[in-house]
Amino acid sequence: MKQSLFSKEGQTESGPAGLLQDLSRELRACIQCGTCTGSCPNAAAMDMTPRQLWRCVLTNRIEAVFFSRTFSLCSSCYCCTLRCPRELPLTEIMARLKQISLFYGLHKEKRSDLFYHCFLDSVRRHGRIRESEFMMIFFWQMKNPWLPVQYSSLGWQLMKRGKIHLTLPVRGERILEPLFQAVERIEGGK
Amino acid sequence: MNYFYYPGCSLEGTAQEYDASTRALFAALGADLTEVEGWTCCGAGAAESVSRLLALALPARNLALIEKTGSDADLLVPCSACYLNLKKAAETVRSGSDTARKINEALSVENLSVSGKTRVRHLLDVLIRDIGPEVIHGHTVYPLSRLRVAPYYGCQCLRPYAAFDDPERPCSMSVLLTAAGARILDWRMGGICCGASQTQTKPENGIRLTAAILREAREADAIVTVCPMCQMNLAAFQAAASRMDPLVRPVPVLFLPQVLGIAMGIDASLLRLNANLSVTREFTEKLMADRVPVAYSPLRVGVNKSFPP
Ligand code: SF4
Ligand code: SF4
User: Fold this and answer.
1) Structural domain of residue B282, as residue ranges?
2) Cβ of A24 under 8 Å from any chain B Cβ?
3) Measuring CA to CA, which residue among B163, B154, B180 is closest to residue B28?
């Protein structure tokens, strides 16, 4: 039983196209007013504004949606959700796009994907996140020799204050393993 | 007053001083905090980007542990990300939707179940509504009159649930800090996003947001915050931010319980000021030297007794 959240096994018949249609139903009331775009602190860095992204979801332009980096730049600040005059759950929909894209490997956001993956892996093993171990694994898996240099001043600052320590990954007590497996089973069979 | 207490992973690691100062503050205020026994990670921002059910089941497990004790005390959460995850899980379970059923199905592998009856409260919510500015003022022995602070709320304690403050123009921290004698920097960045985990995953964009906040705080002696992620972003990336924007100045970033604790005369070693990345020795020394004990004076600010209105 190897249904992983991170692989294509356990794929539903509907696939990304079906999931996108679910989202498009939720967005049906969008009036394209652009309040979401005007509220978004990350809009300037996005290739498509949030309003344009909703338009693409509504018109079923699946390539345009998943080719865009827009949803991966959402920092979950909930400004758009708060202000949307149609009270649409926009932050939640951004998160669902991240989930779909990660699940089907539609989009290569190597750094974010690995960051989340390593984070949850540490949680799965220890029940709580071990920040030191998480960072070590993240650097190792990025296989980017420059990355620790970018982070090193942060790592060094934290170490100096005794907040993180150099550690090697350990197996952990795995108290959350049953819950992770249950979630994978339920989501895989949806 | 009794609360369950969920510290969360950051408060065990990079934000230890938030944990220490929260415990010290509530002890001084005479409120009991009972740490949730066997608590586990709430999924932070990572679970949400991977799986919807996981992002709800991880916090729900902690709510189930609380319900198992049979107590109906509220749950106090200092970390804004944990607070939102736990609150979202409680609300989802209470809604009785299909997702609620799936959450309980997942929890059943550990013989746990959740009904969502526990009230999830952010630390700031408890301070402003249960404790209140009058009590803080009454406990203040060293008014912070020489300190001009920039209250920084971040996102997730304000939005999407407007539980205790105005999500567009928050003011609860200003009220508490004024009660402790501090002067407040009038700025509009209090509820603007700091970039969250993008300072790690997309540094160019994440640090751009952090820099915008630090720039506007340049006139303040300190930024005061209630979120470990915001605190880390604002404290650790000041050098990078000042390369992006020359108006950025180094500024200490403190947690609210640390600042209120100083005013209340709580022992500095319990507040762990020296653990903050951005706090320099000069700042701490000046802060301590500036302390002038003042006999009780009536609250000068116009504090609305029934806050929020
Ligand atoms: S704010 Fe709401 S209604 Fe307006 S464009 Fe955005 S999603 Fe559509
Ligand atoms: S929640 Fe995401 S999309 Fe919405 S305003 Fe914030 S960053 Fe932009």
Assistant:
1) 133-288
2) no
3) B180
